[in-house]
Design goal:
CATH superfamily of the largest domain in chain A: SGNH hydrolase
Radius of gyration of chain A: 21 Å
Distance between the termini of chain A: 77 Å
Number of strands of chain B: 0
Largest interface: A-B, 36 and 37 residues
Number of domains of chain A: 2
Largest sheet of chain B: none
Helix content of chain B: 55-70%
CATH class of the largest domain in chain A: Alpha Beta
Strand order of the largest sheet of chain A: 2-1-3-5-7
Shape of chain A: globular
Distance between the termini of chain B: 16 Å
Strand content of chain B: under 5%
Number of strands of chain A: 7
Number of helices of chain A: 13
Order of helices and strands of chain A: HHEHHEHEHHHHEHEEHEHH
Oligomer: heterodimer
Mean pLDDT of chain B: 91
Helix content of chain A: 40-55%
Order of helices and strands of chain B: HHHHHHHHHHHHHHHHH
Structural class of chain A: alpha/beta
Mean pLDDT of chain A: 87
Structural class of chain B: mainly alpha
Chain lengths: 304, 469
């Protein structure tokens, strides 16, 4: 019995000590160094951005919107701050963090057709975990979100940053430096172009999704930042009906006096599979064309 | 309840502490209640199915020992229990296949679909109970008189949903032994669990998104990516199932029970026969004892021997799942086993033990063969199986890098740690960390292992692949 108690005591003590030391190292690193790789865009938005226009969204925005094309057209600095696999909680958080140190002229939100359909934090949200405890209320709240056990486990720097630091460390060796072109990351040309798929029926709206949308709108309004929404094209055909989420988003935008650019079913894109990487994402050629189209729209809206 | 859930991390210490605190006579009852609670966390109603299997096989065992109408009792109980298994696991598959066949012959009918949720672990506990009843029928095991003890044998929570499939001869007597607490054995159990969690959470869960991304969207990926995803799935399936088995064996050990070893370094096998002696050992030995040997095993003509092994592998494929992909997987392994028998009969291919280079080449060759076998196992449809092979052999290209190069580097490093341990154990090298004789080194190594899990593992509560069987 004594040996078992000693065994458990050694294990708990070792984990506890490593956890504290890791927490200290993690905070020091985050405060003093640029985080590379996938995390670069987040780190840039949190610590450095002074850009006039910031793009937020998930992979559809990240891969479809070329910052430099928009810059040339708008004559403003643009940063693509979109991030793969993110959802409403992430967008809400990133705006709070950016607005805490900088007020851009506009936020451009690239949306998926089902953006308001679900309101879950998702696994990718924890990319923000290294910034836990830095005084960002929304961020801390989402990291701790869950049951009592989740709240307790969020206090452990090892658990909270699980898989993150190994990647950050490896990015220093494998893919150091700034990723993408002013945040934009191109999808290459796929080995096989996608076949068009048909989407039927309506999508249910998540009330929490609508509430989060309204909070994002309010955040921008309170900070006197212009919010513009857009849907990049997808290689899917909506049969008979447009997604309920899209209709409601358009309605919400109208009510809040927000301009929206909807290219979801743009016939020019729908007719050419070579502009896509897969059914949801444009490839680099598609992004080039779409960014030019979008910049034409933005020019009138932002500079008006 | 999943082993990789927070509930289990609370459930297990409570049950093991209660087990050691209670007097011997109450321990089995407590374990039985805990086991049913553990199972009912998924779908409470399906506990009734375990209870039915338990009662029918227990009663039949009782009757078999009386010696009258043995064959009738055995037939009834086997048909009854396999019927339950058939209805829940195979009915939809068989119906769809029959209707598809009729459609092929020009007879068009609407395919009926039965809305049945597959009870978790049904194949495992059914086989465990059936093994018991056959042993009693053969007279190699006395019938268990105590229903509660027998019910615990069928539902013992560490191995209830994904094995190891225990034999009554091994497990039942242990419920009557007076277990005295031994700290060292408890520590050994915990160490096995830690390694099991490393395999499941560190490797299987980390590689799963890559494998899923490729296999769930096969048309979008080139042959290089499909091959790499297959390589990763080879480790995913081993770490998922092997990890579960280790956690089960470790959890049982903490309470003083010895479960059978289920995996013995399968990817270091030197022949397909050797592979099946190392992979899912409890199922292989079940099939050997209750199917392969009764059919004649290897003590018959070469042709019959080949038939026996092929049929056993074919049934093993069916056991794994109601899908043609699993049946093809069984056939694939059946063919390899038959070829293995042929190879042993051809004198110029029989080079004896072979030197170290031959051994290494054999291990690599068998690894590649088993890896290609997993394509059948993982593919979502038969069409995807052929597509995977077509792509691998005709469409090379740039490797899809999934969640990024660092992620790939991380899980490949974790696989390297696993293979280092496998190799060390196989070669019997005296390098020990977790199992070091020095208590402090062993404890700190275990702590570092847990820290590695905390740093690298995925805690998203993914199901164990073998639960579906």
């Amino acid at each position: 019995m004594k040996r078992l108690i000693l065994f458990i005591a050694i294990i708990i003590s070792a984990i506890f000590v490593v956890d504290i030391l890791f927490g200290v190292f993690s905070r020091y690193y985050v405060k003093n160094y640029q985080i590379p790789g996938d995390y670069r865009t987040i780190d840039y938005l949190i610590k450095e951005t002074k850009d006039d226009v910031i793009i937020v969204g998930s992979s559809v925005a990240l891969n479809s919107t070329i910052s430099s094309v928009l810059e040339d057209s708008l004559n403003m600095s643009v940063w693509n701050g979109a991030c793969n696999g993110q959802g409403l909680p992430y967008f809400e958080t990133i705006l709070e963090v950016v607005f805490s140190h900088h007020t851009p002229k506009a936020i451009i939100w690239g949306m998926r057709e089902n953006e308001l359909n679900y309101y879950t934090k998702g696994n990718r949200y924890k990319m923000l975990a290294p910034y836990y405890g830095f005084g960002y209320k929304t961020l801390d709240k989402y990291i701790e979100e869950g049951e009592l056990v989740d709240k307790l486990m969020a206090k452990s720097s090892l658990y909270r940053n699980n898989t993150i630091w190994v990647r950050i460390l490896l990015y220093n060796f494998i893919e150091p430096g700034e990723k993408g072109e002013k945040g934009f990351v191109a999808k290459g040309i796929p080995p096989y172009y996608p076949n068009i798929i048909e989407v039927e029926g309506t999508n249910e709206i998540d009330e929490q999704g609508v509430e989060a949308f309204n909070r994002i709108v309010k955040k921008c309004r309170d900070n006197n930042v212009k919010l513009i929404c857009y849907y990049p094209p997808v290689y899917k055909k909506y049969v008979n009906v447009t997604s309920e989420a899209v209709k409601i988003t358009e309605q919400l935008c109208k009510e809040n006096n927000i301009e929206i650019y909807n290219a979801l079913q743009d016939p020019a894109f729908m007719a050419d599979s070579t502009l896509f990487y897969d059914n949801d994402h444009l490839n680099k050629n598609g992004a080039e064309i779409f960014s030019r189209d979008l910049s034409g729209f933005l020019k009138d809206v932002i500079t008006e | 309840m999943l082993f990789n859930s927070i509930q289990f991390l609370l459930f297990f210490p409570i049950v093991s502490i209660l087990y050691w605190l209670l007097p011997q006579k109450f321990r089995n009852v407590m374990l039985l209640v805990a086991s049913y609670y553990f199972y009912m966390n998924w779908e409470p109603i399906y506990a009734i199915l375990i209870a039915i299997t338990t009662i029918t096989t227990w009663y039949c065992g009782y009757k078999l020992e009386e010696g009258k109408h043995k064959k009738t009792y055995l037939s009834i109980v086997l048909i009854f229990n396999f019927s339950i298994l058939f209805v829940y696991k195979y009915l939809n598959f068989v119906t769809e296949s029959v209707f598809f066949g009729l459609e092929y012959l020009g007879i068009k009918m609407d395919v009926p679909h039965f809305d049945l949720l597959l009870p978790v672990g049904i194949s495992f506990y059914t086989f465990q109970a059936v093994g018991y009843i056959i042993d009693v029928y053969r007279g190699t095991l006395p019938a268990e008189k105590n229903l509660a003890t027998y019910a615990l044998f069928v539902s013992f929570f560490p191995q209830l949903v994904a094995g190891p499939i225990e034999r009554a001869k091994n497990l039942l007597p242990q419920f009557y032994e007076k277990h005295r607490f031994n700290g060292d054995i408890f520590i050994e159990g915990l160490k096995l669990m830690v390694w099991g969690y490393f395999m499941k959470l560190g490797i299987a869960e980390n590689v799963a998104p890559y494998v899923d991304a490729v296999y769930n969207n096969m048309a979008q990926h080139n042959g290089t990516s499909v091959l790499f995803a297959t390589f990763l799935f080879t480790f995913q399936i081993f770490c998922d199932f092997g990890g579960y088995s280790l956690i089960a064996i470790g959890a049982a050990k903490c309470m003083g029970f010895d479960l059978v070893q289920n995996f013995k370094r399968p990817y270091l096998a030197r022949s397909m026969r050797d592979f099946w002696r190392r992979w899912h050992i409890s199922l292989s030995s079940w099939f050997a004892d209750y199917l392969y040997i009764p059919m004649g095993g290897s003590r018959c003509s070469t042709l019959k021997h080949q038939r026996n092994i092929f049929f056993t592998m074919f049934v093993s494929g069916i056991w794994h799942g109601a899908n043609w992909t699993f049946i093809l997987w069984g056939i694939y392994h059946g063919i390899l086993q038959v070829l293995n028998i042929i190879k042993r009969k051809i004198s110029f291919l029989d080079y004896g033990e072979g030197g170290p280079i031959i051994k290494v080449l054999e291990v690599i060759f068998i690894f590649i063969l088993s890896m290609f076998g997993w394509i059948f196992f993982r593919a979502n449809s038969v069409g995807d199986v052929w597509l995977a092979f077509e792509k691998i052999f005709t469409q090379p290209g740039l490797l899809y890098n999934g969640e990024g190069k660092p992620s790939m580097f991380m899980f490949l490093s974790l696989i390297a740690i696993l293979m280092f341990k496998e190799l060390k154990d196989e070669l019997n090298l005296k390098i020990n960390f977790i199992h070091n004789k020095n208590f402090v080194i062993s404890s700190i190594s275990t702590a570092l292992m847990i820290i590695l899990i905390l740093l690298c593992a995925k805690f998203e509560g993914g199901q164990f692949i073998y639960f579906q069987f």
